[in-house]
Amino acid sequence: MPKPVYLASQSPRRLDLLQQIGLAPSVLILRARAERVDVDETPLPAEPALDYVLRLARRKAEAGEFARRGRRLGDWPVVAADTTVTLDGQILGKPADAREAGAMLRGYSGRSHSVLTGVAVAFRGRLAVAYSQSTVVFRLLSESEIATYVASGEPFDKAGAYGIQGRAALFIEHLSGSYSGVMGLPLFETAELLKEVGYPVI
């Protein structure tokens, strides 16, 4: 039987990834006002990207565990993650609009960028945190390709304005690192964290 876990995220990609490794995830939606759990995703001044994703993953897992206990839900681990893209040292989150999405894609064109994903697992008073870092190389993109991709709507709910598992796969010339990490949840690291807190996947 698949082992149940909570996912402190509404990302369908993370949900699919947990199911891929034989888990039975339930989405744990944080009720910020009612439960006094707030996760501010604003980077701190001069905060390095790695510190940023680890801080947010940790905070989301802690908030998820607090919510789980408050609601008296099942005693299962809470998995949380945060992904960011960095280009020239700048943290790139989800684009606010088409103009910003297009600017991000132009920045990747013909060069490499980094994708960092922090992941955290909270279970029975234990909290374990890890990360994956990947390098993604885009081929040169034409203005027409950028416009068509932005018009598809795919960039708007994704850190860095693209999804490796979607149409943007056509742009990626090379990937060094974790494919699932670029999607939003590095499966190797997640499984290792679950093992660390005493809840191995297999």
In short:
With 202 residues, the protein is of the alpha/beta class.
Characterization of this structure:
The chain has 202 residues and is an alpha/beta fold. The chain has one domain (3-196): Maf protein (Alpha-Beta Complex), CATH 3.90.950. The chain has helices at 12-20, 32-35, 49-71, 98-108, 143-151, 179-183, 187-196, and strands at residues 3-7, 23-27, 78-87, 90-92, 112-123, 126-138, 172-176. Strands 1, 2, 3, 4, 5, 6 and 7 form a 7-stranded mixed β-sheet that branches. Strand 5 and strand 6 (126-138) form a beta hairpin. The longest helix is centred in the N-terminal third of the chain and has 23 residues, at 49-71. The radius of gyration is 17 Å and the shape is globular.
Radius of gyration: 17 Å
Residue ranges: pLDDT <50 for 5 or more in a row? none
Through-space gap between termini: 11 Å
The CATH C-level name is Alpha Beta
Helix and strand string, N-terminal first?
EHEHHEEHEEHEHH
The amount of helix comes to: 25-40%
Biggest sheet overview = 7 strands, mixed
Please state the second-level CATH architecture.
Alpha-Beta Complex
Number of helices: 7
Number of strands: 7
Query: Based on CA inertia axes, which overall geometry fits?
Result: globular
Number of domains: 1
Could you say what the CATH topology is called?
Maf protein
Query: Structural class given helices, strands, pairing?
Result: alpha/beta
